[in-house]
Amino acid sequence: MNIGEASKASGVSAKMIRYYESVGLIPAAGRTTSGYRLYTMTDVQVLRFIRRARDLGFPVEKIEELLALWQDRSRQSADVKRIALEQIAGLETRIREMQAMMDTLRHLADACCGDHRPDCPILADLLEGPQQVDAHSEGGRSAANRSGPATILQTH
After folding, report:
1. Which of 49, 76, 81, 102 is most deeply buried (CB count within 10 A of its CB)?
2. pLDDT tens digits, 74-102
3. Residue of 78, 77, 47, 75 lying closest to 63 (CA atoms)
4. Position 1 in a domain
5. Is the pTM of this model over 0.85?
6. Which of 41, 51, 56, 42 is nearest to 17 (CA)?
7. Which residues touch 57 (CB under 8 Å, ≥6 apart)?
8. At 39, which CATH number?
9. Where does the record place the region Disordered (predicted)?
C-alpha cells in the first residue's frame, strides 16, 4: 500500500510517517520503480503501535525502547512495566506543574480588576515574574509595582 493508504489504515499522518522513518523509528519503506513508498500490514501495525504510544505521551526515545521490547519475544514484562511506570511518574509531574500554572493564572486573574485602568497584575507578572505579596500592597501589588511595569507597558 502507498503512504496515503498506510496513513489511513494506521491513523498516522503521512508527514509523521516520513518523520518516523527519518529518525529511524520505523525502517525505510520499500519503493516502487517510480520511487513511491510501499508499506505492508506489518508496517501499519508498527505505526498503530507508535500512534497509541504517542497518544499515551511517550517520547520517541521511549517508543523506540517499547518497539524493541515488543519485537523481542524473549523480553521480560518487568522491562515494559518499568517504562510505563516511568511514564506515569512523568505525567504526574507534568500534571502538578500544569495545576500550579492554573493556580497562578487563577490568582492573577482574580487580582486583576479587569476595568478601564491600565494596571494589571497579569502583565506585571509576565514582565517581572512572581512578586512577593506585601501586606501593605493594594490588590497584591506593592507601590513600586503599581507604577513600574504598568507604566512601562502603557508607553509601548
Report:
1. 49
2. 999 999 999 999 999 999 999 999 999 99
3. 47
4. yes
5. no
6. 51
7. 87, 90, 91
8. 1.10.1660.10
9. 133-156
